[in-house]
Amino acid sequence: MKFGKDFKKEMVPEWAEAYMDYNDLKRILRELREYKQSKLRLAVTPSRAFEQKPPLEGTLSEGGDVEDQVIDVNTLRGVGSKKFYKTKFLRQSEEGGEIEVTFFRKLDEELNKVNTFYKDKLEEVRREASQLNKQMDSLVALRIKVKNPHQDGSSSGRVDNVDSTMPLTKNTSAADTSGVEFRGLESRVKANDKDQQEPYPGASDADPAHAKITRSDSRELHTYDYNQDPLEVLEGVRINHTLESPLSTIKGVFKDSKEEKLSFDKEELRRAEERLRVAFIEFYHKLRLLKRYSFMNLSAFSKIMKKYEKFSSRRASRSYMQIVDNSALGNPDEVTNLMERVEATFINNFSHSNRRKGMKLLRPKAKIEKHKVSFLSGFFSGCSIALLVAIVLTIQARKLMNKKEGTQYMENIFPLYSLFGYIVLHLLMYAADIYFWRRCRINYPFIFGFKKGTELSYREVFLLSTGLAVIALSGFLANLHLEMDSIGKHYKTVNQMIPLGILILILVITFCPLDILYRSSRFFFTRTLFRCICAPLYPETFPDFFLADQLTSQMQALRSSVLYICYYGLGESSRRQSKCHKHGVYNTLYIVIAVIPFWMRFLQCIRRLCEERDLKHLCNGLKYFSTIVAVIVRTVYELHKGKTSWMVLALISSAVATMMNTYWDIVVDWGLLQKQSKNKFLRDRLQVSNKSIYFVAMVLDVILRLAWMQLVLEFRLPSLHKMTVTTIYASLEIMRRGMWSFFRLENEHLNNVGQYRAFKSVPLPFSYNDEDDDKDD
Q: In this structure, are residues 580 and 572 in contact, taking their beta carbons and an 8 Å threshold?
């Protein structure tokens, strides 16, 4: 693979604009090469074609004297004593010199940009390391106080069952960093991972605390003084409450402060340890990406200077790379030392000195694509197509749609199986979204908050959709044969239970606690669904409102699920749908079940409005409230057909909801139609290179929103059955939601890119009185 492709592949997506612009520098060098070649062709005349070409100026093998005559790099001081570099090209008067001046000017801009970004991020990790070090002191003191409530620091110099800690901000001595070369860091870190797979020497299960406190490691220093009273360390320390559960939210409503005094109980200690463990993992991930950022940019500068030497026949690489290596970017030792200290602290305090276990948490392995997933996806796809063809041929051969009893049967049985069809279509759209997110380098695992190595690929989602399609189509085909054949009358009860059996099977698999069929993804889905149902008692996260938005497009699927209650709960399995609407309970559920997703989004908007005090969330909540009104009015009109007043109300409410939702989709959720954008009628940043795709998407969103309005008012073609039209409109809404999902996540990704936000914000467990004093000052 060429370096340019590898460089782009290894970029942190949210930091892409902070990397060196390698392609633009290559473009300038291509101009230089073309200029040199054109001059060379003009210089070689026919009479001199066979003469020996003299060597180009500058292709000498001498060292520093020739190099110093090519460029002169100066280090200047900017605002706030910040360094920046400016290169003077000493051979500007020669042919092609202007292009080389442009190259070095651009090279300096990129070096200053990359170096400034790296120093800013390095300052951030220093501050965060100081915070984590302070948090670890409090955690160790809390451990001592909880596990030894009657013991103070002066009573004993040794404390059982308490892990030690070490500072993350220790000043690095010369012994720590001598002989460290940047280009050897990758192999050295890998070697460190392999040479200590077992717990540290001296650690034992019988007395782990003693082993950790007494072991001698050059990277380990104790910051906690075990001879002092833990209450002195914990003085002024309070526990943070983030209102992350319904109970804590309810408590927070009646309390002004989200901080409480320490209660020194085991549950409090457990929660603090868990939150600090997550903070260390996220901090280590940040250090790894920062180190990789330094390595890739240093490699890019080295590669581009080699290309310059090749195209210009001058020797300037060593002079310029000396400046790069002496910059902050070329000295990643501080990041490496921080990584080593985080590893030691994390292994000692959060993995019982088991290095293998600790490194597995700090460095989770990337997910590996399996060939059996592709094979099974193709196999199930073929089976689904074959089953679908068999169903169509069966209906045509028996001419079911030409018989009254056959039409009634299809009206009764089809809604039960349409539920699975809507789910399959939604999974297919999600698989397509994942594919295009990856193609456009949209960091969807970070946005959704998936644990590394657990996110599903588009092949795996496609496998789930085709597998579900095979199960549903097989049940439908079996149902048809048993219903239409004379021998099937003896198995009428079994035949009626087939769709319910498939539904129960899907629910059992979804909520199964066993480690089968992507358990982590199933748990993530069920946990997010539960948070949506409990809105607004949980703080809203991106997965919460994203899932709730997906459910708003599954209104017909939710109503199909209500039919199961009518058929099997109200004893209408023999009379089917024609009798369901005569039950007041069914009609109530028919309205409520369609409103629930919009109501969840409305409550989520209210929660964010209370937390952020942003009127945008109020407008978003009013949008969902208008949709709730439109759905209720439309449903009442459907149940009371023929009343003009309800039709007018349905038309007005649906028109208002459609306009508000269309505007919000395009302008707010997608971030398009910006007035002062450099891309006319779009936005400044675009992940899709073909701009026409955005205009097509906007037009399709308007058309499909109008199709939803037609569904509301039951406009249908006379040649198609009512249920067919309803199914088509519901499927179009699901496809519109799939298109919306791609551009919504693209806009979220670009918002993160604009703020260089590549990490989760992890709340720390402790707060301090002195921090409040600093804020007041």
A: yes
CA 131 to CA 136: how far, in whole Å? Answer: 9
Q: Are 748 and 683 in contact (CB under 8 A)?
A: no
* Stretch (H or E) spanning 83: strand 83-89
CB atoms within 10 A of CB 105: 13
Identify the pLDDT of residue 560: 86
Report how far residue 595's alpha carbon sits from residue 629's, in angstroms, rounded to the nearest whole number.
9
User: Among candidates 337, 405, 33, 42, which has minimal Cα distance to 180?
Assistant: 337
Rounded Cα distance, 408 and 721, in Å:
12
d(CA 72, CA 633): 76
Contact indicator for 477, 457 with CB cutoff of 8 Å = no
Q: Where are the domains of the chain?
A: 117-363, 366-533
pLDDT tens by residue, 492-521: 777 778 899 999 999 999 999 988 889 999
Please give the Cα distance from 105 to 89 (Å, whole number). Answer: 9
Instruction: Tell me how far the alpha carbon of residue 279 is from its chain's centroid.
Output: 18
DSSP letter at 762? Answer: P
CA angle 697, 702, 705 (to 5 degrees): 120
Q: Which helix (H) or strand (E) holds 75?
A: strand 71-77
Residue 167's pLDDT band (cuts 50, 70, 90): low
Whole-angstrom distance, CA of residue 44 vs CA of residue 56: 13
Find tokens 């220790």 and name the residue: 170
Interatomic CA distance for residues 311 and 326, integer angstroms: 26
Distance in angstroms (rounded) separating the CA atoms of residues 558 and 422: 10
Q: What is the pLDDT, as a whole number, of residue 216?
A: 34
The three-state secondary structure class of 524 is helix
Listing DSSP states for 387-450 in one string gives HHHHHHHHHHHHTGGGSHHHHHHHHHHHHHHHHHHHHHHHHHHHHHHHHHHHHTT--HHHHHTP
Find all residues with CB under 8 Å of 462, minimum gap 6, and list them.
Answer: 377, 427, 428, 431
DSSP string over 99-119: HHHHHHHHHHHHHHHHHHHHH
Judging by beta carbons within 10 Å of its beta carbon (0-12, 13-18, 19+), is residue 675 exposed, middle or buried?
exposed
Structure letter (DSSP) for residue 244: -
Long-range pairs for 499-504: beta carbons < 8 A, 24 or more residues apart = 499/413, 499/416, 499/417, 499/475, 499/564, 500/564, 500/567, 500/568, 501/475, 502/420, 502/471, 502/472, 502/475, 503/419, 503/564
How many Cα atoms within 13 Å fall on the side-chain side of residue 78? 9
Q: Answer yes or no: is pLDDT of 572 > 50.
A: yes
Four-residue CA torsion sign, 413, 522, 741, 379: negative
Name residue, tokens 């007005």: 652
What confidence score (pLDDT) does residue 432 get? 96
Read off the pLDDT of each residue in 334-352 and give the average, rounded to a whole number.
90
DSSP code of 237?
A: E
566: closest CA among 542, 553, 585? 585
Q: Mean per-residue pLDDT for 347-359?
A: 89
The one-character DSSP state at 200 is P
Residue 733 has pLDDT above 60, yes or no: yes
pLDDT > 90 fraction of the chain, expressed in percent and rounded = 33
